[in-house]
Amino acid sequence: MKVTICMGAKCTLMGADSIYDAVEYLKENVCGPESNVCSAEGLEVELSNCMNYCKDREGVAPVVTIDDEVIFNATAQEISEKLIDKLRI
């Protein structure tokens, strides 16, 4: 599973850093090797300079994609919940 977090100016100002921190925490601590809840095996996290969604639309930042699903106005909690659901053992 691939998670891409836009780190363009608007997305960073709207909280992309906290989303990245939450995903990394989830990957290392919540879904780590000893977890009985979920497994982060195969989880790839990528940072994008800009995904260009903000250029076409107003008020969509921060933007995150999980595989082919685009999530606008993403929050750390929303992304964490989606990932735990998808990574659940």
From TrEMBL:
The organism's place on the tree of life at top rank: Bacteria
InterPro entries documented for this protein: Thioredoxin-like_sf
Protein's name according to its UniProt entry: Thioredoxin-like [2Fe-2S] ferredoxin
Species assigned in the record: Anaerosphaera aminiphila DSM 21120
